[in-house]
């Protein structure tokens, strides 16, 4: 799955699934601009890994809930390349709060980061995209099943499904595809408590949690020409949970 010459923008790319996506796209030959909200060690080590892979890449600090930061981020792509071929919306936020106690501020923080920012990034990037462009939104399996204490997170991820389908209908005539990848439980560097891992082991048909790299390879497939007739799909990558 080669992406030589392709130019990619990935939001939320410093940690976890986002980091795996950035590195997989780069290894496939794409040039990547990505962002992290806080910078720090994760961003610094990502820069070093991208340098080791080679190619033209950039790790920016940006808060995608702020329009001015989105403008700067997309502007960086325009300055470097003059176009964008791939947009991966991975930035998200999560918390665990009983719905009866969920404050409006926390609702807006999670929904704005996971849903509204995705729409705004796509809208801002569209003038730089053309025939053969691919947009991949990172959703979640919970969008269609729900989960306690995460009504705001589930609502944001469910909204991404509708956004993806609507944009599929609007952008198809321009030759731009829009798909969604919905991961199930995934091991990240933050770690998972043993009791949670055991619960997922019983729930997931494959008997284990996923790895970020297993999500990233699906994104890379959707980003390239091998998936040229896949459009408007939600692809669950969940081990059969």
Automatic annotation (TrEMBL):
The keyword Kinase does not apply. It comes from the Bacteria. It is an enzyme of class 1 (oxidoreductase). It holds the Pfam family adh_short_C2. Keywords: Oxidoreductase. Belongs to the short-chain dehydrogenases/reductases (SDR) family. This is SDR family NAD(P)-dependent oxidoreductase. Its EC number is 1.1.1.-. Residues 6-184 form the Ketoreductase domain. The keyword Methyltransferase does not apply. GO terms for molecular function: oxidoreductase activity. Signal peptide: none annotated. SMART domains: PKS_KR (SM00822). The lineage of its organism: Bacteria, Bacillati, Actinomycetota, Actinomycetes, Streptosporangiales. PANTHER family: 3-OXOACYL-[ACYL-CARRIER-PROTEIN] REDUCTASE, SHORT-CHAIN DEHYDROGENASES/REDUCTASES FAMILY MEMBER.
């Amino acid at each position: 799955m080669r992406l030589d010459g392709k130019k990619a923008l990935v939001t939320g790319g410093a940690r976890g699934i986002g980091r795996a996506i950035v590195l997989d796209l780069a290894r496939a030959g794409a040039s990547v601009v990505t962002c992290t909200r806080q910078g720090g060690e994760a961003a610094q080590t990502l820069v070093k890994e991208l340098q080791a892979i080679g190619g033209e890449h950039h790790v920016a600090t940006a808060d995608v809930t702020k329009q001015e930061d989105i403008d700067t981020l997309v502007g960086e792509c325009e300055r470097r390349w003059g176009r964008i071929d791939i947009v991966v919306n991975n930035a998200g936020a999560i918390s665990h709060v009983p719905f009866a106690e969920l404050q409006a501020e926390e609702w807006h923080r999670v929904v704005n980061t996971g849903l509204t920012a995705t729409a705004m990034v796509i809208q801002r990037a569209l003038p730089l995209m053309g025939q053969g462009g691919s947009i991949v939104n990172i959703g979640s399996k919970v969008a269609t099943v729900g989960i306690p204490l995460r009504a705001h997170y589930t609502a944001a991820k469910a909204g991404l499904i509708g956004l993806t389908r609507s944009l599929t209908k609007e952008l198809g005539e321009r030759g731009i595809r829009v798909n969604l990848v919905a991961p199930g439980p995934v091991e990240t560097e933050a770690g998972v408590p043993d009791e949670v891992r055991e619960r997922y082991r019983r729930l997931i048909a494959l008997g284990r949690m996923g790895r970020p790299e297993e999500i990233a390879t699906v994104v890379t497939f959707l980003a390239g020409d091998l998936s040229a007739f896949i459009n408007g799909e939600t692809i669950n990558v969940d081990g059969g949970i």
